[in-house]
Amino acid sequence: MATARGDVVVTETIVQTNIRWDPGYIKTMPGALKLGAVILDLVCMICLVASPPYWREHSVGEWYIFVCMTAFWVSTILLIMYLLHFIEKFHVIPWLMLEFGFYVVWAFFYFTAAIAVAVKSKSSGALLAAAMFGFASMVVYGVDAGIKFIGWRAGNLAQGERKKRQEVVEQK
Q1: CB under 8 Å to 124, separation ≥6 — which residues?
Q2: Burial (Cβ within 10 Å: 0-12, 13-18, ≥19) of residue 63
Q3: pTM here?
């Protein structure tokens, strides 16, 4: 890419392709959100399972369980992949865009599931708790989607570094 002055911007991607354990990822904002999402997914599931059997087998309960468990498994797998730096190993895959898409869809799914459970919650305190934690999960997935979107639009990598340097090329 050439600029008006004749400078050329060179983008250099620096990644380590070895698999290694990095518990420090949990201390970052994306890591904490991912861990929070996994914990909230489990809490949501436990709340719905604690409700009367009728609601677990009702379409509202089945939708809520589908949303919770799918989010739990996908988020857990992504968390493990980040902790082991699999994401950095496969840096050519647009992870931020893929995660952004998943988190937006799942924030919407949690919104619909939490509303459905909240409407039915007058008969069960467990359903009310499930609705509250469902809305909390919606917020966590929404915030994480926002972070992924900002990183994706900025051209960042999910893991690793991308450095830009400018070189002056003399015009002939």
Answers
A1: 51, 52, 55
A2: middle
A3: 0.84
